Amino acid sequence: MIKTIALVFFMTFLFSCSGGSDSPAPEENKAPEKVETLTYPTNNLLCIDNTLDFQWGASSDPNGDAITYTLEIATKSDFSDVESHTSTTTTKTVTLEKGKAYHWRVQAKDSKDLSSEYSSVYQFYTEGIGVVNHLPFSPELIAPENDSNTSDASIDLKWDASDVDDDALTYDVYFDTVNPPVSMMGDNQSEKEINVSLTVTTTYYWKVVVNDGNGGEAIGPVWSFETN
Protein backbone atom coordinates (compact mmCIF):
# COMPACT_ATOMS: atom_id res chain seq x y z
CA MET A 1 0.00 0.00 0.00
CA ILE A 2 2.84 2.39 0.91
CA LYS A 3 4.56 1.60 -2.38
CA THR A 4 1.34 2.34 -4.25
CA ILE A 5 0.92 5.73 -2.54
CA ALA A 6 4.55 6.62 -3.23
CA LEU A 7 4.17 5.71 -6.89
CA VAL A 8 1.03 7.85 -7.25
CA PHE A 9 2.80 10.77 -5.56
CA PHE A 10 5.83 10.41 -7.86
CA MET A 11 3.67 10.32 -11.02
CA THR A 12 1.71 13.37 -9.83
CA PHE A 13 4.95 15.27 -9.18
CA LEU A 14 6.37 14.25 -12.57
CA PHE A 15 3.23 15.36 -14.39
CA SER A 16 3.16 18.72 -12.59
CA CYS A 17 6.79 19.39 -13.57
CA SER A 18 6.24 18.54 -17.20
CA GLY A 19 2.80 20.07 -17.53
CA GLY A 20 4.25 23.09 -19.35
CA SER A 21 4.71 20.95 -22.47
CA ASP A 22 1.05 21.48 -23.28
CA SER A 23 1.35 25.26 -22.99
CA PRO A 24 1.38 27.21 -26.28
CA ALA A 25 4.72 28.61 -27.38
CA PRO A 26 5.13 32.37 -26.91
CA GLU A 27 3.98 34.32 -29.94
CA GLU A 28 6.87 35.50 -32.10
CA ASN A 29 7.09 39.26 -32.20
CA LYS A 30 7.07 40.60 -35.75
CA ALA A 31 7.91 44.03 -37.12
CA PRO A 32 5.16 46.43 -38.22
CA GLU A 33 4.14 46.58 -41.85
CA LYS A 34 5.84 49.06 -44.15
CA VAL A 35 4.08 52.41 -44.67
CA GLU A 36 2.80 52.07 -48.22
CA THR A 37 1.35 55.54 -48.84
CA LEU A 38 2.88 59.00 -48.58
CA THR A 39 -0.01 61.45 -48.85
CA TYR A 40 1.50 64.93 -48.48
CA PRO A 41 3.67 66.54 -49.69
CA THR A 42 3.27 64.66 -52.94
CA ASN A 43 6.23 63.68 -55.06
CA ASN A 44 7.94 66.54 -56.95
CA LEU A 45 5.63 69.11 -55.34
CA LEU A 46 6.51 72.80 -55.33
CA CYS A 47 5.13 73.85 -51.94
CA ILE A 48 3.78 77.36 -51.46
CA ASP A 49 4.88 77.43 -47.82
CA ASN A 50 7.74 76.12 -45.71
CA THR A 51 5.59 74.92 -42.78
CA LEU A 52 4.20 71.59 -43.94
CA ASP A 53 1.73 69.07 -42.55
CA PHE A 54 3.35 65.77 -43.50
CA GLN A 55 0.77 62.99 -43.92
CA TRP A 56 1.10 59.27 -44.64
CA GLY A 57 -0.88 56.04 -44.52
CA ALA A 58 -1.14 53.96 -41.34
CA SER A 59 0.95 50.86 -40.68
CA SER A 60 -0.35 47.75 -38.91
CA ASP A 61 1.39 45.44 -36.48
CA PRO A 62 0.95 41.62 -36.68
CA ASN A 63 1.02 41.36 -32.88
CA GLY A 64 -1.25 44.32 -32.25
CA ASP A 65 1.53 46.37 -30.65
CA ALA A 66 1.30 50.15 -30.45
CA ILE A 67 3.04 51.89 -33.35
CA THR A 68 5.03 55.10 -33.54
CA TYR A 69 6.35 56.67 -36.74
CA THR A 70 9.70 58.22 -37.55
CA LEU A 71 9.51 60.91 -40.23
CA GLU A 72 12.88 61.48 -41.90
CA ILE A 73 13.58 64.62 -43.96
CA ALA A 74 16.84 65.32 -45.78
CA THR A 75 18.25 67.59 -48.46
CA LYS A 76 20.41 64.73 -49.77
CA SER A 77 18.90 61.73 -51.52
CA ASP A 78 21.00 59.29 -49.47
CA PHE A 79 19.65 60.82 -46.21
CA SER A 80 23.17 61.45 -44.92
CA ASP A 81 21.96 64.76 -43.43
CA VAL A 82 18.70 63.38 -42.08
CA GLU A 83 16.41 65.31 -39.72
CA SER A 84 14.14 62.95 -37.74
CA HIS A 85 10.73 63.56 -36.15
CA THR A 86 8.61 61.13 -34.12
CA SER A 87 4.82 60.90 -34.19
CA THR A 88 2.20 58.59 -32.71
CA THR A 89 -0.20 59.58 -35.48
CA THR A 90 0.07 59.61 -39.26
CA THR A 91 0.78 63.33 -39.47
CA LYS A 92 3.52 65.71 -38.34
CA THR A 93 3.90 69.48 -38.81
CA VAL A 94 7.46 70.60 -39.56
CA THR A 95 8.89 74.00 -40.48
CA LEU A 96 11.71 73.86 -43.01
CA GLU A 97 14.00 76.33 -44.74
CA LYS A 98 12.60 78.23 -47.70
CA GLY A 99 13.77 77.66 -51.25
CA LYS A 100 15.29 74.22 -50.73
CA ALA A 101 14.81 70.75 -52.18
CA TYR A 102 13.95 68.00 -49.68
CA HIS A 103 13.42 64.23 -49.59
CA TRP A 104 11.20 62.46 -47.08
CA ARG A 105 10.28 58.95 -45.95
CA VAL A 106 8.59 57.24 -42.99
CA GLN A 107 9.40 54.19 -40.86
CA ALA A 108 7.05 52.45 -38.40
CA LYS A 109 8.25 51.07 -35.04
CA ASP A 110 6.34 48.94 -32.53
CA SER A 111 6.45 49.11 -28.73
CA LYS A 112 9.11 46.36 -28.67
CA ASP A 113 11.49 48.43 -30.85
CA LEU A 114 11.06 46.41 -34.02
CA SER A 115 11.04 48.62 -37.12
CA SER A 116 9.48 48.23 -40.54
CA GLU A 117 11.19 48.82 -43.85
CA TYR A 118 11.29 52.44 -44.96
CA SER A 119 8.51 53.76 -47.13
CA SER A 120 9.23 54.96 -50.64
CA VAL A 121 11.00 58.33 -50.88
CA TYR A 122 9.24 61.49 -52.10
CA GLN A 123 10.90 64.78 -52.95
CA PHE A 124 9.55 68.32 -52.86
CA TYR A 125 10.64 71.95 -52.95
CA THR A 126 9.82 74.73 -50.49
CA GLU A 127 9.08 77.98 -52.32
CA GLY A 128 11.50 80.80 -51.65
CA ILE A 129 10.76 84.52 -51.60
CA GLY A 130 11.14 86.01 -55.06
CA VAL A 131 12.61 82.80 -56.48
CA VAL A 132 12.46 82.59 -60.28
CA ASN A 133 14.51 79.45 -60.88
CA HIS A 134 14.69 76.43 -58.57
CA LEU A 135 17.63 74.10 -58.31
CA PRO A 136 17.16 70.60 -59.72
CA PHE A 137 16.55 67.75 -57.32
CA SER A 138 19.58 65.69 -56.34
CA PRO A 139 20.05 62.73 -58.71
CA GLU A 140 18.74 59.32 -57.66
CA LEU A 141 20.67 56.09 -58.18
CA ILE A 142 19.17 53.53 -60.57
CA ALA A 143 22.08 51.14 -61.30
CA PRO A 144 24.38 49.60 -60.31
CA GLU A 145 23.29 49.20 -56.70
CA ASN A 146 25.50 51.12 -54.30
CA ASP A 147 28.33 49.04 -52.76
CA SER A 148 27.52 46.12 -55.08
CA ASN A 149 29.83 43.74 -56.99
CA THR A 150 30.03 42.93 -60.67
CA SER A 151 32.01 40.58 -62.93
CA ASP A 152 31.21 42.48 -66.13
CA ALA A 153 33.89 44.03 -68.33
CA SER A 154 31.71 47.13 -68.74
CA ILE A 155 28.59 48.49 -67.11
CA ASP A 156 25.86 51.09 -67.64
CA LEU A 157 25.75 53.76 -64.95
CA LYS A 158 22.11 54.86 -64.63
CA TRP A 159 20.40 57.58 -62.60
CA ASP A 160 17.29 59.73 -62.54
CA ALA A 161 16.70 63.42 -61.83
CA SER A 162 13.87 65.96 -62.03
CA ASP A 163 13.21 69.67 -61.75
CA VAL A 164 10.11 71.51 -60.48
CA ASP A 165 10.48 74.13 -63.21
CA ASP A 166 10.50 71.41 -65.89
CA ASP A 167 13.83 72.72 -67.20
CA ALA A 168 15.73 70.54 -69.67
CA LEU A 169 18.42 68.88 -67.58
CA THR A 170 21.96 67.89 -68.54
CA TYR A 171 24.45 65.82 -66.60
CA ASP A 172 28.16 65.78 -65.83
CA VAL A 173 29.32 62.31 -64.81
CA TYR A 174 32.45 61.77 -62.72
CA PHE A 175 33.88 58.24 -62.62
CA ASP A 176 37.12 57.24 -60.91
CA THR A 177 39.04 54.86 -58.65
CA VAL A 178 39.52 57.60 -56.05
CA ASN A 179 36.96 59.05 -53.68
CA PRO A 180 35.66 61.61 -54.45
CA PRO A 181 35.87 60.96 -58.21
CA VAL A 182 37.56 63.67 -60.30
CA SER A 183 37.67 62.20 -63.82
CA MET A 184 34.76 63.37 -65.97
CA MET A 185 33.33 60.64 -68.23
CA GLY A 186 30.22 62.50 -69.42
CA ASP A 187 30.08 66.24 -70.02
CA ASN A 188 26.79 68.10 -70.35
CA GLN A 189 25.00 65.02 -71.66
CA SER A 190 21.23 64.72 -71.86
CA GLU A 191 20.99 60.94 -71.39
CA LYS A 192 20.52 59.51 -67.90
CA GLU A 193 23.05 56.73 -68.40
CA ILE A 194 26.59 56.15 -69.60
CA ASN A 195 28.60 53.00 -70.34
CA VAL A 196 32.03 52.63 -68.72
CA SER A 197 34.76 50.00 -69.09
CA LEU A 198 35.98 48.18 -65.99
CA THR A 199 39.09 46.48 -64.64
CA VAL A 200 38.95 43.42 -62.38
CA THR A 201 39.36 43.66 -58.58
CA THR A 202 38.87 47.41 -58.53
CA THR A 203 36.65 49.74 -56.49
CA TYR A 204 35.00 52.48 -58.54
CA TYR A 205 33.41 55.73 -57.36
CA TRP A 206 31.01 57.91 -59.33
CA LYS A 207 28.69 60.87 -59.00
CA VAL A 208 26.39 62.95 -61.18
CA VAL A 209 26.07 66.73 -61.30
CA VAL A 210 22.68 67.93 -62.58
CA ASN A 211 22.43 71.24 -64.47
CA ASP A 212 19.15 72.97 -65.39
CA GLY A 213 20.54 75.41 -68.00
CA ASN A 214 19.58 78.43 -65.88
CA GLY A 215 22.49 78.38 -63.46
CA GLY A 216 20.93 75.80 -61.18
CA GLU A 217 23.10 72.85 -60.20
CA ALA A 218 22.62 69.84 -57.93
CA ILE A 219 25.62 67.68 -56.97
CA GLY A 220 24.72 64.10 -56.24
CA PRO A 221 26.25 61.83 -53.56
CA VAL A 222 29.21 59.57 -54.34
CA TRP A 223 28.19 56.00 -55.21
CA SER A 224 30.53 53.03 -55.46
CA PHE A 225 30.80 49.42 -56.60
CA GLU A 226 33.51 46.75 -56.93
CA THR A 227 34.62 44.40 -59.71
CA ASN A 228 35.49 40.77 -59.04
TrEMBL record:
Q: Which domain of life is it from?
A: Bacteria
User: InterPro entries recorded for this chain?
Assistant: FN3_dom, FN3_sf, Ig-like_fold
Q: Which UniProt keywords apply?
A: Signal
Q: Which residues form a coiled coil?
A: none
Q: Does the keyword section mention Transport? A: no
**TM region(s), chain numbering:** none
Q: Which residues form the signal peptide?
A: 1-21
Q: Which residues form the Fibronectin type-III domain?
A: 31-129
SUPFAM superfamilies reported in the protein's UniProt record:
Fibronectin type III
Question: Any keyword Transmembrane?
Answer: no
Tell me the Gene3D superfamilies matching this sequence.
Immunoglobulins (2.60.40.10)
Name this protein carries in UniProt: Fibronectin type-III domain-containing protein
